[in-house]
């Protein structure tokens, strides 16, 4: 099995056998998406370089710089990675560490990140006392406080799925709620109620959250702030930067690429 296949599947043949297995996977030169799959173990997905978005159940998640996505065992998910991405997968046996029982983004302290990357370099059959101690330190230091900024609730309604598919394909032309109501042959009031019921957000907040996801994905994949602003239909990079900073507290440049080691 090639590195590319490993990346697409987010799977390693030993991922469900050891107590905690870490695998550093090299990406390809093209964007790629894995088929939906699941693991018995819980999984931390860390972007070492480039970007990755994950579709888990009814939500779209972005794995931003210095963070990891936690996917509990048994959850169907797929991964979409940017060109030249390098990912690290940490598989954790159910009950081995106190982790949330729901999908979430976790901010990783530098110590945790370095421990994961170091474990990924060790031979997978190595179950030495040294490795066991490192794993226990890692488990003790894993963050438990989730960050909910980096996900987008995914609607089940087929009409809203059409809307989000169009917005993802043409992010510079996301349209207003009024326009979407006409396109979907609904009243604006009924569309507003449907979006709120399906996603828990109003249209404006949900649309802005999608823009953040697409922006972070583009920036992590190597696009410049100017290019990302254009991708999302902004007339100037300044307007995009101001909007981004007001909402997330950091400028888009913070997400330019992922950390390298």
TrEMBL record:
Q: Where is the HTH araC/xylS-type domain?
A: 161-258
Check the record and name the Pfam families matching this protein.
Answer: HTH_18
**UniProt KW Iron keyword:** no
Keyword flag Nucleotide-binding: no
Tell me which InterPro entries the record gives: Homeodomain-like_sf, HTH_AraC, RmlC_Cupin_sf
Enumerate the UniProt keywords alphabetically. Transcription, Transcription regulation
Q: What is the official name of this protein in its record?
A: AraC family transcriptional regulator
Organism of this sequence: Tatumella terrea
**What is the organism lineage in this UniProt record?**
Bacteria, Pseudomonadati, Pseudomonadota, Gammaproteobacteria, Enterobacterales
């Amino acid at each position: 099995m090639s590195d590319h296949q490993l990346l697409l599947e987010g799977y390693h043949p030993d991922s469900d056998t050891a107590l905690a297995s870490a695998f550093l996977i090299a990406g390809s030169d093209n964007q790629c998406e894995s088929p939906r799959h699941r693991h018995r173990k819980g999984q931390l997905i860390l972007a070492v370089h480039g970007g990755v978005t994950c579709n888990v159940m009814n939500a779209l998640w972005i794995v931003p710089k210095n963070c990891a996505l936690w996917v509990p065992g048994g959850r169907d998910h797929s991964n979409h990675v940017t060109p030249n991405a390098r990912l690290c997968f940490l598989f954790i046996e159910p009950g081995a560490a106190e982790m949330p029982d729901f999908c979430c983004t976790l901010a990783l302290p530098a110590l945790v990140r370095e421990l994961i990357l170091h474990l990924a370099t060790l031979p997978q059959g190595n179950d030495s006392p040294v490795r066991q101690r490192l794993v226990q330190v890692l488990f003790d230091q894993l963050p438990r406080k989730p960050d909910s900024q980096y996900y987008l609730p995914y609607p089940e309604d087929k009409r809203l799925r059409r809307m989000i598919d169009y917005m993802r394909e043409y992010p510079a032309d996301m349209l207003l709620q009024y326009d979407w109501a006409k396109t979907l042959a609904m009243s604006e009031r009924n569309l507003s109620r449907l979006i709120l019921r399906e996603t828990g957000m109003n249209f404006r907040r949900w649309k802005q959250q999608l823009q953040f996801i697409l922006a972070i994905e583009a920036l992590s994949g190597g696009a410049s702030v100017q290019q990302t602003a254009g991708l999302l239909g902004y007339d100037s990079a300044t307007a995009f930067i101001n909007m981004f900073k007001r909402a997330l507290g950091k400028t888009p440049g913070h997400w330019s690429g992922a950390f390298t080691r």
